[in-house]
Design goal:
By secondary structure, the protein is of the alpha/beta class. It is built from twelve helices and 21 strands. 30% of the residues lie in helices and 25% in strands. The structure holds pyridoxal-5'-phosphate (PLP).
Length: 432
């Protein structure tokens, strides 16, 4: 019935996250409210760790892609679970370092890192910088040289696999702002350039083919292509690169109809492909990195709202307005993402209404979903939107000067605030 293990229904018919009644949480903390399950996050991390151990002799590391939900407590939890961390900006790096994440397990991504960000990364001794372009390579080499440092790097490669078409295709991804294209020879030229620089050490390659991917085939094809490229690099430069970062993008279930493969299945398949291809090419099996973001935190989160106005437009649709919207969850406005919703107080009842869940912004597109089946809803009810743990809080905005909701972390029957609710004063804090 539910899209995540951490959700259940109690005897009163209320939606619970772990052992906490969502109606009690809404009453205690107010709405809108993000709620996360710590047990679920840890379990998701463990699945990656265990799968790497079971299917790849533990010769790798899963990095939590922090952009999915970046705050100190979630960085701490991921680090405690033995994950490395992927950051994409100085702000994410700062958060990770302040949370006490070991810098050597941090991978710094981004297609246009600034000089101050690179300096911060060098000063914090970030383990690996994933270099995206030649301008960055030149700048990093110079900045590292000025500090008498040799920085470990990977190069981001576009493997030419587009996982986002209905039947995924191998071309087309040349048209991307990220990384060096493989087919055009750009990636090989970048490898040679990197190898020739004295203040960076090239340790491997990175690729990332997209997000919310359900099919394992594009991942397998990517692994084949990348190992082929590693062998080609050895042939042309004599360098045998040891590390291969296969990126993230593993899909999660937002609605009951969706059926993503288990990570274990993916790991087992990718591992067998890597072993097979390495055997054929007589290339040593690389140390692999994975970068799950959505699949770590997505299923672990829900958002609670209070219903305000209900407008039934006969023959057209029913608008149910809630006290949040695109400012705390912009994903429907951005890309028509689907969600499952429910009346948190009537969780087991039949869904008798079809509603458009609307936010409070001055924007007709401020919707959380359209044509959503839900139990009876009226003013004052608490609505839960499920699977909001990824790319909601991290994508939140302050449009219309809406304060961001707080984040409450649940563990068993315990609840604690991990991000406080913003106030109107917070919103005006930087105003002069
Ligand atoms: C976004 C991103 C990820 C995480 O993707 P998910 O779909 O959340 O798993 C990993 N690596 C890179 C480079 C990314 O840009």
């Amino acid at each position: 019935m539910f899209v995540a293990d951490c959700l259940q229904v109690n005897q009163e018919g209320h939606l619970c996250i772990e052992e906490q009644d969502t109606l009690e949480l809404a009453a205690k903390y107010g709405t809108p409210l993000y709620v996360m399950s710590e047990t679920q996050i840890r379990k998701n991390c463990q699945r990656y760790r265990d799968s790497l151990k079971r299917f790849y002799d533990g010769n790798g590391l899963a990095l939590y892609a922090s952009k999915a939900f970046c705050c100190k407590e979630i960085c701490r939890i991921a680090a405690e679970e033995g994950m490395g961390l992927d950051v994409v900006s100085g702000g994410e790096l700062y958060t990770a370092i302040s949370a006490g994440v070991s810098p050597e397990k941090i991978y710094f991504h981004g297609n246009n890192k600034t000089a101050p960000e690179l300096v911060a990364a060098l000063e914090h001794k970030v383990g690996t910088i994933v270099v995206d372009n030649l301008e960055e390579l030149e700048m990093l080499d110079r900045l590292a040289g000025a500090k008498n440092m040799r920085q470990e790097i990977m190069l981001r490669v576009k493997p030419g696999v587009d996982a986002h078409t209905h039947n995924f295709i191998r071309t087309g991804q040349i048209d991307s702002k990220f990384g060096f294209a493989l087919e055009t020879g750009e990636a090989m030229a970048a490898v040679k350039e990197a190898v020739g620089r004295s203040n960076v050490v090239l340790t491997g390659l990175h690729c990332h083919i997209g997000s919310q991917i359900f099919d394992t085939e594009p991942f397998l094809l990517t692994a084949r292509i990348m190992i082929g490229f590693l062998a080609q690099i050895r042939q042309q430069t004599g360098c045998e690169l040891q590390k291969l970062n296969l990126g993230g993008g593993f899909g999660i279930q937002y609605t009951p109809e969706q059926d993503p493969p288990a990570y274990e299945t993916y790991m087992e398949r990718v591992s067998s492909v890597i072993h097979e291809i390495c055997g054929q090419l007589e290339f040593p099996t690389p140390y692999i990195l994975m970068e799950p973001g959505r699949s770590i935190v997505g299923p672990a989160g829900i958002t609670l709202y209070t219903v305000g106005a209900v407008k039934e437009i006969p023959g057209i649709r029913t608008y149910v307005s809630v006290d949040g919207g695109m400012t705390d969850n912009p994903r429907y406005a951005l890309y028509q993402s689907e969600y499952q919703i429910m009346n948190a107080g009537l969780a087991l009842q039949e869904k008798t209404m079809r509603v458009t869940l609307a936010g409070r912004c001055c924007e007709s597109g401020d919707l959380i979903g359209e044509n959503l089946p839900v139990q009876h809803l009226e003013k004052g009810d608490i609505v839960a939107v499920l699977s909001t743990g990824a790319y909601n809080y991290s994508m939140a905005s302050h449009y219309n000067r809406m304060p961001n909701p707080p984040v409450v972390m649940i563990k068993g029957d315990k609840d604690r605030v991990i991000v406080r609710r913003e106030t109107w004063e917070d919103l005006a804090r930087l105003d002069v």
